[in-house]
Amino acid sequence: MSTRSSTNTIQPRISKGFSLVELMVAMAIGLIVSLAVFSALSTFEGRKRTSTSVNDTEQAGNYAIFEIEKLVRNAGAGITQKTDDAFDYLLCSLAASKSAATILPATPPAPFNNVTIGTAGVFRLAPALILPGQTTPGVSGQASDVLAVMASASGRSEVASPFQAAPTATRLAVFSNAGFAANDIILVARKGGLGNCLIQQVGSLDNADVNNQGLNLAGTHYAASPGGVALVSSDFCSTATTPAIASVCNVLNLGSTTNPPLFALIGVGDNNTLFSYDLLRVQNDAALQIADGVFEMHARYGVDSNNDGRVDTWASATGTYAPASLLAADGSGIANLCRIKAIRVGLITRSDLREKEDVGDATITLFQDLPAAVQHTRNLSGDALKFRYKTLESTIPLRSMLGVCAS
């Protein structure tokens, strides 16, 4: 029997994988794809930030216009009374105190610390005024207009009550106090005069004598001599000897501490912010922010030049429509003041996102549909062009002034 010898042959194992060249090619392809993806994401994120910034700015601008309209639309309500073919209280020089400290005339806080309404140190009663170039926003660096708006918010009685007798330092004698209540803010003025008028406050009603009703004065806005103007003076019939003589002096309900009158300034301050400030400081002592993103504000008057109740011309707040002319102490500006039937407000808003490239317009023009003489042009250069801008405009009718000068 033969024996066959068998031999086991071991086959070598073949290792499979990527070569160095293949790995380098794969890494290069992956890097290219990653760069493409990140580039697309970066572009998308940049567009998203731009879109968000523009949308935010547009919303803020629309809200700013809405708030301005709300404030300006009622300008003059309750204070533009006219009897015997003459205005009763327009252009009286306002004096007011709060907690025994003078607040009118006084210097308002920033951004309104350089505001002058007609005459330095004098704040005269007027429905709506454009104060040209009276704030300088820090971002813009250029002069911006301010709006001054005044109106009653009484709701109880907007008909003045004449004095029945000479006032005392703490009491006004009137024929009827039915339109007043405790804490009401009131205006004390001489009818048809252009002199002083006082902001006072009702503490309580005096009905002890039905034939000689009264308003007892007290509260944070009461002072015997607000702004140095004494209530017991000839300006307010303190020397009156009969009801007929005393009745030339009047008290007008302006509102209350919970429903305050509108005596406000509106303008642009630092950080592209639109502010308002309550001149009577009934509820707030500081300037309040209305909206962000407002770069500049400018305004024009809509004027009824032929007394037909319609706006037919537009005017800048210069010349005969400058504050000093409209509010002249001799009353010569009242005719022009009462012809103002609307105010055209223009805002330039700016996004808060600084782009890498120039994206803004070098020239921005407000009121383009109006004559060139009343348009406003703003030129931009340098870093300012790396922001996006938008203009918003609104024509706001002054409802309380629409029929005032109609013949």
Describe this entry's structure for a reader.
The termini are far apart. The protein has 407 residues and is of the alpha+beta class. The radius of gyration is 34 Å and the shape is elongated. It has helices spanning 20-73, 243-246, 323-326, 334-337; strands at 82-83, 86-87, 93-98, 101-104, 128-135, 144-151, 161-162, 171-174, 184-190, 196-206, 213-217, 249-256, 262-269, 273-278, 288-292, 294-303, 313-315, 340-350, 363-366, 376-379, 389-397. The chain has two domains: 53-87 and 127-150 and 262-401, no CATH class; 161-256. A hairpin with a 6-residue loop joins strand 10 (196-206) and strand 11 (213-217). The chain contains four helices and 21 strands.
Tell me briefly what this model is.
By secondary structure, the protein is of the alpha+beta class. The protein has helices at residues 20-73, 243-246, 323-326, 334-337, and strands at 82-83, 86-87, 93-98, 101-104, 128-135, 144-151, 161-162, 171-174, 184-190, 196-206, 213-217, 249-256, 262-269, 273-278, 288-292, 294-303, 313-315, 340-350, 363-366, 376-379, 389-397.
